[in-house]
Amino acid sequence: MSDPGTEGLHRRIAALEAEVARLRGTPAGQREAELRLITDALPVLVAYLDRGYIVRFNNRDYETRFGRGVETLVGRHARAVLGAEMFAQSRPDMDRALAGETIAFDGVLPDGQGRHRACAIQYIPRRNAAGAVEGFFVLAIDVEERRAAEARRIAVAELGDRLRDLDDTAAIAYAAAEILGTTLGVSRAGYGTIDAKAETILIERDWNAPGIRSLAGTLHFRDYGSYIEDLKRGETVICSDADADPRTASGAEALKAISAHSFVNMPLTEHGGFVALLYLNHATARSWSPEELAFMRNVAERVRAATERSRATSARRVSDAQFHAFAQAVPIHVWAASATGALDWSNAACASYCGPARDGVRGAAWAGLVHPADRAAVEAWESCLEDGRPYAGEFRIRRDDGAYRWFLVRAEPIRAADGTILRWVGTNTDIDDQKATSAELARLNTSLERQVERRTRERDRIWETTTDLMGTAGLDGYLKTINPAWGRTLGWDDDALLGQPFAALIDPADHAETAEVVRRLARGETVTGFVDRVFTKAGERRTVMWTAAPDGETFTIIGRDITDQRRTEEALRQAQKMEAVGQLTGGLAHDFNNLLTGISGSLELLQARMAQGRITDLDRYINAAQGAAKRAAALTHRLLAFSRRQTLDPRPTSVNALIAGMEELVRRTVGPAVTIEVIGAVGLWTALVDPNQLENALLNLCINARDAMPEGGRITIETANKWLDVRAARERDLEPGQFLSLCVTDTGTGMTPEVIARAFDPFFTTKPLGEGTGLGLSMIYGFARQSGGQVRIYSEVGQGTTVCLYLPRHYGEAEARDGEADLAHAPRAEQGQTVLIVDDEPTVRMLVTEVLEDLGYTAIEAADGAAGLKVLESDVRLDLLVTDVGLPGGMNGRQMADAGRVVRPGLKVLFITGYAENAVLGNGYLEPGMQVLTKPFVMEALAGRIKELIAGTGGA
Questions:
Q1: What per-residue confidence (pLDDT) applies to 689?
Q2: Cross-strand bridge partners of residue 881
Q3: Beta pairing class for 880-884 and 909-913
Q4: What is the Cα Rg of the chain in Å?
Q5: Closest C-alpha to 811, from 743, 738, 742, 733
Q6: Distance linking the first and last C-alpha atoms of the chain
Q7: What pLDDT is attached to residue 125?
């Protein structure tokens, strides 16, 4: 054998044989003892078998391998020692040794743990003095570690060869895993990246022995034990038996399920962090030798180095690709040169500019393209090449067509780690247009200076001559600069204006608003259209409208004196008011003359017919007079609604239910040529309104819509809930909040903007003479505003019109509405029920008393508040107080009722009024047990309200 260890063994065996020969002359016992002493000292297995394959001698190494004492082996057949299979394999070589042949071969022998280890084995025949073979020596030396070391050395060399040609990190990891697995004879080897926070490993690919499944994917360390803590500390985890290791005992079954009964996990770190793992798995328990672990560390270090090299190479490639892509994409010239300055690369922009001459500028020939007058730039470049300074210069370069253009040329050296210049990289930026622009700017600057000077003079003239107050002021409340208009307008000199707080010049009534403006300016807001009153030196007040713009701690202000303008506007408004009053009174006179003619004429004819005894036609004149009176009342209601002074009886109202109750009336009113569509919002909020006035408003809108569609069309009545934000509320002149809308839309002729602007004016109408009073929309507008809402018109000529009422939302349930009973069927009074009537109009007292007495009530009359209060303070039985609101004598009806309730708590009160005592009545919000009835009223309504209040079923 050529193995050096085996040759040494041969020398030892020769010495042993000589010693055996020497001992032949000694007694047998002594001879064996000395032989054993010699062979036990050898690191080899020594045995002797006779021709019958019986073991006659063995040294202690046999005991180490087979686990049996020397005395148990001597005298046993080789089959019993080696086992039948191994004996059968070895017998041919044994027979050759017994035939006198020395046999040497590589084989395996079991160790103390039952594992087979590589050995160099020899069978050496032993001859007697006659030369006959009596038996043979068995000599075996363990070469397992040496061969394993050689295998690892070869594996490291192979890994180096493979890694040299690999750039992909995944391929590098797999190559290392494959070499580790095959060299160490494990079940699995692999490499994975680590997420230390999630405590997981991501394995892209691993090497697996035949019959072992791959673990590619994501694994959670905690599923297999607690050894992740060791890995986080950068410690290699070595596990020989998952069942016995306390770190893996809880996850031993899971580890064995993935063929990792024993394993090695070697962490790889970057910048102090645990980022990757090289691992070995074996399906059975296994001890890991220090040599195997050292081999694994060697591989890990090579993988780390190769990975870093791969990343650096990839980064360099990406960087080079990005540089080349950038260099080709930019519109400037990009070039590269050697350390000596010879150009050897340029981008497409440079090639396009130089044209066919590009090849001629390779090396140092580029200087030939430089303008002759700019040769100093070439010399500066040569100087930079000598001392390594970055280059920058401006010069002209010849284009392919022979024209020269100016360029800004820059170049930077690329240095090695020791500072040596490797290459130069440079750019040429076309600045020809910039040069031309600079020349033009130089020319314009001279002109601009003259213009600035002229404009400065113009600004100074404006500053000096304008009547507007101009200047700057500080947030500290003092003026900083002012123009002469301040003195001319206010009479103060500059020192007086600049030496006192500006607030001292402002009317105290405007201080709060002025302070708010200053706060807005401090927040950076520009303020326009702000008006306050400023004192002159003579003590007069001048009204000034300001615009102010902030500028840090100061702000610029411009004020215009609008005192005279305001006076003119007020005079114009007064004239318009007088015109409106004239129009209003003319319209009233016309309408009331017609109505009074109908009333007085009917009464005169009624009187004449009664004097003549002709009583058959009296109903005709009575009905005519009543009809004229009702029309007069309606006209009065419309006027009060427009003026927002009608007395409303607001009640929680379901607008959808109100529309449903009127739908049939509306259909009959507009006629068959008009289609009615009602769209009621689901979940519509309740509104607090006078339902009768809302019905009148809806009917008026539908009649107007009908009149706008002479050929017929469609009317849509729609309700909706609206939540108006600040902007939407401002557009409708309302406060932000929740409203419900009632809109009537037609498909008629529409309105022009001029008509929309005047639509709410009293007596304004576009209908033919005699077909409209012009008070319908005026009444609707007044009713909406008095109810806390708004009305808006949206229209386009030829497209139709939409009129929307916006009413505030009421939080509460709607009240059910009851119809009025006629006077003949009005409920009768109970025994002794008494009503106090207080009204300064005798006719009203007489009529109310008549109705009450007809119904069985006892009526007590009083002409003013003082007389009524005396009755209230007496001990007379009173079930109800019926009183006008506006009474003479210094005490109105509400005051009298409140005083009466002091002595008569819970007194029922019915206010009857023909004017607008809304403020007196609490704007429609009455106390429990109080109601209001608006004059003129029908007697049936009066009777019903009285009975309702006395019975205790009504109230505010």
A1: 87
A2: 836, 909
A3: parallel
A4: 59
A5: 738
A6: 127
A7: 94
Q: Report the run of H or E that residue 862 belongs to, with start and end.
A: strand 858-862
- CA 794/CA 743 separation, integer angstroms: 10
- Nearest-angstrom CA–CA distance, 563 and 545: 9
Q: Which two tokens stand for residue 712?
A: 């017929």
Q: Going by DSSP bridges, is the β-strand pair 237-239/800-810 parallel, antiparallel, or unpaired?
A: unpaired
Report the helix count and the strand count for the chain, using DSSP H and E. Answer: 28, 34
pTM: 0.36
| Residue-level pLDDT at 17 | 55
- pLDDT tens digits along 105-123: 888 776 656 667 778 889 9
Residue that the structure tokens 């849509």 belong to:
716
- b/e 563-602 (16+ beta carbons within 10 angstroms → b): eeeeeeeeeeeeeeeeeeeeebeebeeebeeebeebbeeb
Residues 6+ apart with CB under 8 A from 831: none
Among the listed residues 818, 803, 616, the one whose alpha carbon sits nearest the alpha carbon of residue 704: 803
What does the longest C-alpha to C-alpha distance in the chain come to? 192
Which of 151, 155, 147 is CA-nearest to residue 6? Answer: 147
- Which amino acid, one-letter code, is at 566? R
In angstroms, the CA 184 to CA 566 distance is 105
Is residue 680 within 8 A of residue 656, CB to CB? The reply is yes
Q: Distance between CA atoms of 561 and 566, rounded to whole angstroms?
A: 10
Q: What is the mean pLDDT of residues 712-738?
A: 88
* Residue 246 structure tokens: 């306390």
Bridge partners (DSSP) of residue 547 are 558
Average pLDDT over residues 359-379: 75
The helix (H) or strand (E) run that includes residue 533 is strand 527-535
Alpha-carbon distance of 940 to 897, in angstroms, equals: 24
Pick from 938, 251, 246, 169: nearest CA to 629: 938
Considering 223-227, 446-450, 774-778, 784-788, the range whose residues carry the highest mean pLDDT is: 223-227
Q: Which two tokens stand for residue 854?
A: 């007809």
Contact 513, 529 (CB under 8 A): no
User: Residue 274: enclosing H or E segment and its boundaries?
Assistant: strand 273-282
Closest CA to 37 of 60, 9, 56: 60
Nearest alpha-carbon partner for 806 in 793, 792, 789? 789
Check the CA dihedral 490-492-494-499 and report its sign. negative
Q: 108 CB contacts (<8 Å, ≥6 apart)?
A: 116, 117, 118, 119
> What does the pLDDT look like over 482-510, one tens digit per residue?
899 898 988 989 888 888 898 888 999 88
Which residues on neighbouring strands pair with residue 266, listed in sequence order? 278
pLDDT digits (tens, 9 = 90+) for 135-145: 999 888 877 77
Quote the tokens at residue 506.
């402002």
